[in-house]
Design a protein that fits this description.
The structure is a single chain. This protein has 23 helices and 7 strands. The strands form 3 sheets. The chain has a 3-stranded antiparallel β-sheet with strand order 1-3-2. A two-stranded antiparallel ribbon has the order 4-7. A two-stranded antiparallel sheet has the order 5-6. α5 packs across α10 and α15 crosses α17.
């Protein structure tokens, strides 16, 4: 199969100059298994940066004005798409086709990948020189010819009016127009950026990106459906021991810092916890912390989610052991809970000796040092890499928390996904989120943009923008502390 694309050699500092059309996968390239995953992760970082901008309500055309975003995309491309054993062009191709395999598997995944790759292609096309754009246009083999000089002169005044209405001059369009069916450039028609006559749109050379992007999107959409058929019919089973686990994990991969080690400057002690929980914990951790203070107990999922978060913000192991032991020792049980927790053990207290359920009487229950060490302390030390395989476990990312499935009596998970609307509104109000911001948050929740909902909450609570978005609870905490500490250093802020 032939790989179609601009084959010119890029300059050393021109990292976006080669633009493949991804017509077919390169069969002659051999890819190591570790590079298969690594290249895909690097491209995914670029696509998720674009996704953050689009999800915040930016339209594709508006995205072009986000200078900082595209500088970041270019820097990510420069940093990630070069490799000593693979050319940038080959790495571009490999990463695209790996992610095509990853994101072909469901309708939602296909829609996301199609939108992000199209936005990236649009941006990269606009960076090409005029000659390169013409070459790419020719490679699509579109059945459109440039308008003749005679026809151009007959509609020149109309074209000039349209150009002026969008702040351009007729000469800035390079004097070349293409006449195409209007339905093939819907975004230009919707934006009233082209002259229409007899069902045709007159598209200037500097607008041809719309035409090319339409063709690119159409081709990729069909290719994703075909790839899905191959995946389900043969590839998934054939590669179940090798590629399938990688492919299935990549679409939910967290790509940021793991926060397994606290910052050097982090120094969170027990006496600080209540204060920082109130000021800098994201809602998911704030809820767990409050339920722990209220009930003096959390089930395993809650202990893992909160415990690893506290480790990441700088709570030392000895303090963590003291914290959890102090909380568990204050637990007060309803007798109907006792069998679940102690497996029918005989319970002795000042209220007597019990073997079975008693109607909702409260019984003080002291975990005790021996029981705490046996059932809970080992797990805490294990999370800190001091037991078992000595693995240094990392705090949970937003993606992991969102994908969890809390059961009855659990308090872990993502409040934006798992809370009822009434409970979520109450929790946001308690954090100080105003009514207008709350409606914006709820709108994101209804559209299942849970991380954006958390980002909007962060902005409402701290009174500042968070352009990077929230991708990890520990990122929320660190960014919050930076803002609060800078305000203390400069009271005028």
């Amino acid at each position: 199969m032939e790989i179609l694309g601009s084959q010119r050699t890029p300059k050393a500092d021109d990292v976006l100059s080669t633009l493949p059309l991804y017509r077919s996968a390169p069969p002659e390239l051999e890819v190591r298994l570790e590079d298969f995953e690594l290249f895909a992760i690097h491209r995914l970082r670029v696509l998720k940066g674009i996704s953050d901008g689009l999800s915040r309500g930016k339209k594709p055309d508006e995205m072009e004005n986000l200078v900082e975003l595209w500088i970041q995309v270019k820097e990510l491309w420069k940093a990630n798409m070069r490799h000593p054993q693979a050319s940038e062009f080959n790495r571009d191709l490999i990463s695209h086709f790996v992610l095509r395999l990853v994101y072909c598997r469901t309708e939602d995944l296909r829609k996301w990948f199609l939108s992000m790759e199209t936005a990236l292609f649009r941006h990269r096309f606009r960076l090409q020189s005029l000659e390169a754009q013409r070459a790419l246009l020719a490679e699509f083999d579109l059945p459109y010819k440039a308008v003749s000089q005679a026809e151009f002169e007959s509609v020149k005044e109309k074209l000039a009016q349209v150009a002026r209405s969008i702040g351009l001059s007729l000469t800035s369009a390079d004097g070349i127009y293409f006449k195409v069916p209007f339905e093939e450039v819907p975004e230009l028609v919707a934006g009233r950026k082209v002259f229409l006559q007899k069902g045709n749109a007159y598209v200037a050379m500097n607008q041809v990106v719309s035409l090319v992007v339409t063709q690119f999107r159409s081709h990729l959409s069909k290719a994703l459906v075909l790839t899905n058929r191959k995946w389900t019919s043969t590839i998934r089973e054939q590669e179940k021991e090798r590629l399938t686990p990688i492919v299935e994990a990549l679409s939910t991969s967290y790509l940021g810092p793991d926060y397994s080690q606290p910052r050097e400057s982090a120094d969170i002690s027990l006496k600080d916890l209540d204060q920082v929980a109130n000021s800098s914990f994201p809602l998911c951790m704030r809820h767990l912390f409050e339920k722990l203070r209220e009930d003096h107990h959390l089930k395993h999922g809650g202990r893992m989610q909160l415990g690893l978060f506290l480790k990441g913000v700088g709570l030392k192991l000895d303090d963590a052991l003291a914290f959890w032991k102090a909380e568990f020792s204050r637990k007060v049980l309803y007798m109907e809970q006792i069998e679940d927790i102690l497996d029918d053990e005989v319970i002795e207290s000042s209220y007597g000796v019990y073997h079975h359920y008693v109607a909702k009487w409260q019984v003080p229950y002291d975990v005790g040092s021996e029981r705490f060490d046996k059932e809970y302390a080992y797990g805490i030390r294990h999370n800190y890499g001091k037991e078992g395989k000595r693995t240094d476990y990392t705090p949970y990312s937003c993606q992991k928390i969102i994908s969890s499935t809390p059961g009855v009596g659990d308090h872990h998970g993502c409040p934006y996904r798992h809370f009822s609307e009434e409970n979520l509104r109450a929790a946001l109000g308690k954090m100080g989120v105003g009514s207008r911001a709350m409606e914006e948050v709820m709108d994101k929740v209804r559209n299942r943009h849970y991380q954006l909902a958390c980002t909007l909450t962060f902005e409402a609570v701290h009174g500042t923008s968070c352009d990077a978005g929230i991708n990890h609870p520990n990122q929320y905490f660190i960014d919050s502390q930076k803002i609060l500490n800078s305000s203390k250093a400069d009271p005028s802020r």
